[in-house]
């Protein structure tokens, strides 16, 4: 059994979820012939490093009690450059303007011969092709299932499981916050403002909800799908984006009369049409895309298998960690 | 143009072919044929319903040819606009010259706004409307939608389109 040494860069909700999942799944991983040693965990205030493997229970406890994992002020970048390990889990927050600090972390990891698994959409939405080429040049693997649809296995489904199929189009709901707002507005005949406030109180929407409700988050995910699955070379600015802030409860009522719901749908299609857009759309109530609550859903049209639809939890610490874990295991299997 | 026709054939073999050949010879696209062999009329003839799509105006020729073949044309119903879509608009719909918005579609000659439901919650608040647009065929419907989207953009209205299929 080969030991894979990894670092967790960024220890917010996602990083902590990964630590928890690695603890819960330790026996399962060993039984599967995978021995994972976490040698470094970092957050914005510093790092804790142990070449013999960190006790994740202790790290999680320290984060909870003191607000940081740091036992030294070593930076994330220092860890990536100077700590000997095989795989970097890049779990810093998304910045769609600059892609930082994720982009630098990922490029440096590649240049030091380390595989990367990330949940950070920024770098991928801004410069997918450069990242892809850099990973290839350095002979390392780069996986990012957690960036799209949370626990829903959309990238691996399209790339691995549906191997041999040409994916013609993907449309779906890729933002749970918007879906919650639109579902609640329709069910309770409430205004957008009211439901947004409620979502913020429940922790479903951020204090500054712009990124979700203006469709930016969905657009970033579409860019990742377009590049990774359809081989396009597009960035965030290529997406036509309309959010949900102007949706009225009257519009939802009128849709209901027609036995339809309104959902924020992301759509990407290759070929002659070359569509990549995010917009609120009318969806028949019986349609597989008409899911409610915070669920995510994706409908893939393929040339051989026909339509394939998946849905699942699009966000959450443990759910996102599930996608990261599947990427870690995929890399371990290829490298042991 | 979509045309539905009720025909009556004699109850002898080969009559259905006599009815369909004039249709295809004159360029009609046959969309559906229902042969009511089990429901003869009191006079003993067999009712047949056909639906055809006709791009050139040769309906009179078709009827003449059918009658020449001894086929009775009982009823002809035309439906010019065949494709339908429902969209929702949000914004200051009425105050941005709603009749102009409708006219832009109606003036095409190939598409029409056939129904509109509007909800106006307050004077300074945006209205919401659901619009049903009919058009001659799928391509014309897309063309009509593009016109609507252009108008809506100019008037700062949000158009919510249905997903495909």
Description:
The complex is a heterodimer of chains A (336) and B (165). Chain A is built from 13 helices and twelve strands. With 336 residues, chain A is of the alpha/beta class. In chain A, the strands form two sheets. A six-stranded mixed sheet of chain A has the order 3-2-1-4-5-6, with helices on both faces. In chain A, strands 8-10-9-7-11-12 form a six-stranded mixed sheet. In chain A, helix 6 runs parallel beside helix 11. The radius of gyration of chain A is 20 Å and the shape is globular. The model of chain A has no long low-confidence stretch (mean pLDDT 94). By secondary structure, chain B is α+β, with helices and mostly antiparallel strands. Chain B folds into two domains: 78 residues, Alpha-Beta Plaits, CATH 3.30.70; 78 residues, Alpha-Beta Plaits. Chain B is 28% helix and 38% strand. Chain B has a four-stranded antiparallel sheet with strand order 2-3-1-4, covered by helices on one side. A four-stranded antiparallel sheet of chain B has the order 6-7-5-8, with helices on one face. The longest helix of chain B has 17 residues. Chain B is elongated and about 70 Å long. Chain B starts with a strand and ends with a strand. Strand 10 of chain A pairs parallel with strand 8 of chain B.
């Amino acid at each position: 059994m080969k030991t894979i040494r990894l670092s967790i860069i960024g220890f917010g909700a996602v990083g902590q979820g990964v630590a928890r999942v690695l603890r819960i799944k330790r026996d399962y991983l060993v039984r599967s012939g995978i021995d994972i040693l976490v040698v470094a965990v970092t957050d914005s205030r510093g790092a804790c490093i142990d070449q013999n493997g960190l006790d994740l229970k202790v790290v999680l406890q320290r984060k909870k009690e003191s607000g940081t994992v740091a036992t030294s002020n070593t930076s994330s970048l220092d860890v990536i450059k100077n700590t000997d390990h095989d795989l970097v889990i890049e779990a810093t927050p998304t910045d769609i303007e600059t892609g930082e600090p994720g982009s630098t972390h990922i490029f440096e990891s590649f240049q030091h011969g380390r595989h990367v698994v990330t949940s950070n959409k920024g770098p991928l939405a801004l410069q997918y092709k450069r990242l892809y080429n850099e990973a290839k040049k350095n002979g390392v693997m780069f996986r990012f299932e957690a960036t799209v649809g949370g626990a829903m296995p959309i990238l691996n489904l399209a790339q691995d499981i549906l191997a041999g199929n040409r994916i013609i189009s993907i449309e779906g709901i890729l933002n749970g916050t918007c879906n919650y707002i639109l579902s609640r507005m329709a069910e309770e005949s409430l205004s957008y403002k009211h439901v947004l406030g409620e979502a913020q109180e429940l922790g479903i929407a951020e204090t500054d909800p712009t990124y979700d409700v203006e469709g930016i988050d969905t657009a970033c995910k579409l860019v990742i799908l377009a590049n990774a699955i359809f081989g396009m070379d597009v960035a965030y600015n290529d997406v036509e984006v309309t959010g949900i802030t102007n949706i009225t409860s009257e519009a939802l009522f009128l849709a209901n009369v027609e036995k339809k719901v309104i959902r924020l749908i992301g759509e990407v299609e290759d070929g002659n049409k070359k569509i990549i857009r995010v917009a609120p759309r009318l969806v028949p109530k019986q349609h597989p895309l008409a899911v409610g609550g915070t669920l995510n859903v994706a409908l893939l049209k393929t040339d051989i298998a026909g339509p394939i639809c998946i849905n699942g939890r699009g966000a959450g610490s443990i759910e996102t960690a599930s996608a990261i874990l599947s990427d870690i295991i995929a890399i371990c299997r290829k490298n042991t | 143009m979509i045309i539905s026709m009720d025909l009556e054939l004699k109850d002898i073999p080969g009559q259905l072919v006599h009815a369909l050949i004039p249709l295809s010879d004159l360029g009609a696209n046959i969309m559906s044929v229902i042969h009511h062999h089990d429901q003869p009329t009191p006079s003993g003839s067999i009712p047949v319903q056909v639906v055809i799509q006709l791009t050139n105006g040769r309906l009179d020729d078709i009827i003449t040819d059918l009658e020449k073949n001894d086929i009775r044309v009982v009823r002809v119903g035309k439906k010019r606009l065949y494709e339908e879509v429902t969209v929702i608009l949000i914004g200051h719909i009425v105050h941005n010259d709603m009749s102009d918005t409708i006219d832009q579609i109606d003036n095409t000659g190939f598409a029409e706004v056939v129904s509109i439901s509007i909800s106006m919650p307050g004077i300074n608040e945006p209205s919401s409307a659901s619009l049903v647009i009919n058009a001659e065929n799928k391509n014309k419907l897309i063309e009509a939608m593009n016109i609507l989207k252009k108008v809506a953009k100019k008037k700062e209205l949000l158009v919510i389109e249905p997903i495909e299929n």
